[in-house]
User: Which sequence fits this backbone?
């Protein structure tokens, strides 16, 4: 593939894993083909807008993208953006985006192929919803084997693809320097503060550990709709000295290098990019056994698993790590499996190439 006009369509430029994947993919595509890349999203006020601008990605602002009541207005704006950009491939990253792009192609008669990645999100039943709409994409990408098996059973195998999320090799200032015999159980949480991410379960586990006499320090990196209610919960459980809310940070990992353990307590999680990023930075990952997390985390090998919403089970895993100095460190060769340029990037580029040739 010598050249490519690629447009990503997704709701907004907040600080989630979807935006990270799009940025990493764009950087990879720029390095391997003569590409022009654009995005359609609600851009103004977006936390990650400057990151896209730095990569010279053309931004088409859709001001009310998330407002389903403005479907007609959003459809016309996306149609206009597509007509101006003239993409070869449109890559959608939410089911609403997929529906709008599919309709825009129908009414505009533009000739482009549609790729959709099922990142999941706030809906616990994302795969069930996707089953109703995934035929609108010329290629549907899943990021966990569970999702792949579920959706490929209802489609032709060549229509559904499994491409795991990958990430980039971290700078040295983001890598944990493990110590011997920690006197405090130092933990970190990185992610959106929403129900899906299960932070409430982690706070319950910290409370259980404090009742058992453990000295615990939890750094919470992220923002979201449950932030204030969880701060109140921390106050009620008298954990204000143990739980520290750092807010959203564009570069969170350099701020938590003194936390050897990263907890990913999601209630559901199609991909689990935070877990992969933590592994590469030598954090010991403790994750809930769900979706993409149980796909990528092998308990005792590259991290530890606990049952979803099981605060006591999580507390027991954390005690085991602390009491037995059971921190996990992978070799450089073992970490290659999680690097975007080694797997995810080439897989997407191959998929784009196959679609354009078909």
Assistant:
């Amino acid at each position: 593939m010598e050249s490519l006009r690629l447009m990503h369509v997704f709701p907004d430029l907040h600080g989630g894993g979807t935006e990270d994947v799009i940025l990493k993919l764009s950087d990879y595509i720029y390095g391997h083909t003569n590409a022009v890349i654009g995005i359609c999203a609600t851009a103004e006020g977006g936390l990650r807008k400057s990151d896209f601008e730095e990569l010279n990605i053309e931004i088409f602002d859709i001001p009310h993208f998330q407002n389903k009541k403005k479907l007609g207005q959003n459809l016309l704006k996306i149609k206009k953006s597509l007509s101006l950009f003239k993409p070869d491939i449109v890559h959608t990253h939410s089911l609403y985006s997929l529906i709008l792009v599919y309709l825009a192609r129908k009414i505009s008669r533009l000739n482009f192929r549609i790729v959709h990645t099922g990142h999941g999100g706030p809906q616990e039943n994302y795969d069930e919803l996707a089953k109703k709409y995934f035929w609108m994409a010329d290629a549907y990408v899943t990021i966990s084997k569970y999702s792949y098996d579920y959706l490929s059973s209802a489609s032709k195998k060549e229509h559904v693809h499994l491409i795991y999320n990958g990430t980039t090799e971290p700078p040295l200032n983001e890598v944990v320097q493990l110590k011997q015999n920690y006197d405090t159980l130092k933990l970190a949480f990185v992610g959106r503060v929403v129900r899906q991410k299960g932070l409430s379960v982690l706070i319950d586990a910290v409370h259980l550990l404090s009742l058992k006499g453990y000295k615990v320090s939890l750094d919470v990196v992220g923002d979201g709709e449950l932030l204030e209610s969880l701060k109140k919960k921390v106050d009620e459980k008298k954990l204000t000295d143990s739980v520290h809310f750092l807010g959203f940070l564009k570069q969170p990992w350099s701020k938590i290098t003194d936390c050897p353990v990263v907890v990913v307590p999601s209630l559901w999680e199609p991909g689990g990019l935070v877990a992969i990023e933590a592994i590469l930075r030598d954090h010991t990952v403790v994750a809930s056994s769900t979706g993409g997390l149980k796909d990528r985390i092998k308990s005792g090998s590259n991290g530890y698993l606990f049952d979803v919403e099981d605060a006591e089970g999580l507390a027991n895993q954390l005690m085991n790590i602390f009491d037995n100095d059971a921190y996990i460190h992978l070799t450089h060769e073992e970490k290659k499996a999680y690097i975007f340029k080694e797997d995810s990037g080439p897989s997407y580029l191959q998929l784009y190439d196959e679609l354009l040739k078909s």
About this structure: DSSP finds 13 helices and 13 strands in the chain. The radius of gyration is 21 Å. The chain has a mean pLDDT of 92. The longest strand covers residues 3-12.
